[in-house]
Each structure stands twice: as C-alpha cells, then as structure tokens.
Task: inverse folding
C-alpha cells in the first residue's frame, strides 16, 4: 500500500507527513483552496485509476493538490512543479547568499590572529620568503591556519596603505 501511495503521489511517507504539517500551517483560505483542488483532482484520478478505492483516491488527490498548491516550490526539496517564476526567485536568493558570503570574507577571528603575528610575516617577507612558506610557518608554529592567497590579500591591503 505504501509503495503504491509513493508512486501515485510522488512522495515518500515521511515527505507526506511534512506536507500535511505544512498544509496545517497555512491560512484557512489556502487550506480550503487546496481541499477544493483535491476534490477536482479526485475525479480526475478516479477516471485514470478506477482500480483504486475511493478513500485512497481522495487521499492521493489531496496530496497532489497540496503539491500543486505550493509545497514543492516553497517547502519541499527541489523544483518538481515550480514554474519559471519560482525558479528565478530561488536563483535570486542563491545569488544574494553568495554575494553576502563574498562580501563578508574571512572570519574576523582569522584576520585578528594573523595580524597578531604581522611583524613576523613582514620580517619573513623581508628575508625573501614567499607567502606559501609563511602560511606553512604560521600554521605549524603559531597554529593559525591560513592560505598563501589570503596572506597576499592582506599584504596588499595593509602594506599598500602603510
């Protein structure tokens, strides 16, 4: 029975439980719309699958109506019934998150730790050492994990100002 429900609705039992929780959190008008859509879908499903009992048909129709009502596009995993508009909204969210991470940069903790040993970095650089060995030195002796590219970035930022 569960496998049959999984095939018809396209959701696992666990996902259906989440779907019903989501439906319960909606405003009452939206729930009524989903119920109404479920009634319409039950007649369509009854024509397509006359072998199913009435209660299974109604249950599956309600699940499909809730999916169409927005569960997949908003709360579900993926974009199974998402229109182009919803997909674009998700794309904007992803781009905004990426931009926020890039703007934020490294954690200030790493920056502060490196700046605490900046005198040593300047001294090693003056002796002709590259940023990769300096990064290894900081990691091994001072327990400050950093990359050569980040040291170069800091070098350009700090030493060009000074």
Result:
């Amino acid at each position: 029975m569960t496998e049959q429900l999984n095939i018809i609705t396209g959701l696992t039992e666990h996902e259906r439980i989440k779907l019903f929780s989501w439906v319960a959190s909606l405003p009452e008008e939206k729930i009524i719309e989903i119920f109404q859509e479920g009634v319409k879908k039950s007649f369509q499903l009854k024509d397509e699958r006359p072998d199913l009992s009435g209660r299974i048909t109604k249950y599956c129709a309600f699940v499909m109506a809730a999916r169409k009502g927005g569960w997949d596009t908003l709360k579900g995993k993926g974009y199974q019934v998402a229109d182009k508009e919803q997909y674009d909204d998700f794309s904007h969210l992803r781009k905004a998150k990426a931009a926020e991470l890039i703007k934020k940069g490294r954690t200030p903790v790493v920056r502060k730790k490196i700046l605490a040993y900046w005198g040593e970095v300047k001294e090693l650089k003056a002796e002709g050492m590259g940023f990769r060995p300096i990064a290894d030195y900081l990691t091994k002796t001072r327990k400050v994990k950093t990359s050569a590219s980040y040291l170069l970035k800091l070098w350009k930022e700090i030493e060009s100002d000074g």
Summary: Residues 54-75 form the longest helix (22 residues). The chain has two domains: 2-100, 106-161. The chain has nine helices and no strands.
